[in-house]
33 kDa chaperonin (Staphylococcus aureus), 293 residues
Amino acid sequence: MTHDYIVKALAFDGEIRAYAALTTETVQEAQTRHYTWPTASAAMGRTMTATAMMGAMLKGDQKLTVTVDGQGPIGRIIADANAKGEVRAYVDHPQTHFPLNEQGKLDVRRAVGTNGSIMVVKDVGMKDYFSGASPIVSGELGEDFTYYYATSEQTPSSVGLGVLVNPDNTIKAAGGFIIQVMPGAKDETISKLEKAISEMTPVSKLIEQGLTPEGLLNEILGKDHVQILEKMPVQFECNCSHEKFLNAIKGLGEAEIQNMIKEDHGAEAVCHFCGNKYKYTEEELNVLLESLV
C-alpha cells in the first residue's frame, strides 16, 4: 500500500482552492518500470504529480490525459489519471540525462525543450471530451502548468512541482501543489498569496525535509488560513489487460493478423505505460480472425 496521497483544501474562507501531493513512491514505481535516468525521472515525475492533482479535481469515472511535448530530447511525456488517485506515465526517451544546470539542479528544461505545448484531454463521461492546450513557456513544467491554467482554463493558479533523485537513480522525494484563486477573491488575498509563493522554499526541498502535503499548504498559505477538506491515496496504476490488447490487435484488421500468424506464429504486445508484456498464441489469433469474418 502506497504512503502517497493528495489533500484537497480551501483557504482564506473559500477564496483559494488548493491541492498538494506526496508522490515519491508513485514516481519510484514509474522509474523502476521505465528505467528512467535522473533528468527523465524528474520530468516524468513532475508531470505525473501535476496530472495526479488534476485528476483529483475530477469526479466519478472521469479521467484525463496530459501530453507534454516541448520538442526536446526526452520526446513526449504522457500521463493519465482519474478521480480515484490512480496515475500512470511514460516518456518517449527514458534514458535522457544531462549535467546539472547552473542552479545545481536537474536540467529538466533542456530535456523537455521549449518549442511545443502541453495538451490536456479530459474524458468527462458520456463520450464528452474537453481539450485544452497551451504553449510551453519554460520547460521546467511548474510554470508551464501554471500558464496552462491561466490561458486554457482561465483559472489564475500557481503550480509547484519537485522531484529529487538519488545518486543510484531512485527517487528521493516527489510532490507538488496547485493553488487556485476562486472567482471573487479579494485583491488583498491574491497579494498575500503572490508574496508567499515568491518567498517560499523550492517544493522538492520542503518534501525532502519531510513536509507532508498538509504541511506544504500550511507553509505557503499559513496554518490559520487552511481548511483541509479531503485526503486521498495516490498510486501508480495501469488498467492495461490481455483483453484490451487483444481488442487492439482486432482493430489492425484481417491481413495484419494473418501476417502475425504466418510470420511470427503469434504476437506480443507491450504496454507503453507500465511495460507489461502480453503474449498471444496462434490459436488465439485464429479465433480472433474467425470473429472478424
In short: The longest strand covers residues 171-181. The first helix runs from residue 24 to 34.
